[in-house]
């Protein structure tokens, strides 16, 4: 399974997962034309997109959904999230509930099995996603906007080969920022975003030292530093006896 993170952060999020000639997107939070351009840059033609899975309906995760109409792509999101999504033709709208979705939609010829799980964010019904290939020997977990990682989320994501998870902020930088107090409280709340320390703690429970690939994503441009996010996770994993490039790989996006 090939991963291309086409966009990450408050200006937009879009992740492409490819197996063979088939690709799915998780989120489409940049303009349609930018998604098309970035797909082509990594060798993916937009008409090979089999499905789009939306984590939640905030603009930085669904701005580019007119892509679905242009290429007739099914779109999945939590049932309640459709209250805030009006960019997709009705016949392409599907509900991401607790049932796994087989992509592309044939019991005899499917490439991905996508399983949604609940996360904690100030949206109606936000989701994370676990994606497995048809052979059942490769697993990717995607956990973006969430204010905490609970035991059910850890259970869903366990034994993944790839972890794509937000490492959004450093709390002291948020507190010292010029954000209004209401925004600071939102970011730091249990329905806000993960701090570097929260992400590192979750990964220390998930990583088994089997060569897993970690992508730290959705970093705040104002309240974080890539080196700080990276070192916080590396330190937590080192305390578990895991060394980068020996037991796992890490990339900050």
Automatic annotation (TrEMBL):
Gene3D superfamilies: Ribonuclease Z/Hydroxyacylglutathione hydrolase-like. Residues 11-193 form the Metallo-beta-lactamase domain. Pfam families: Lactamase_B_2. SMART domains: Lactamase_B (SM00849). This is MBL fold metallo-hydrolase. It comes from Virgibacillus halodenitrificans (Bacillus halodenitrificans).
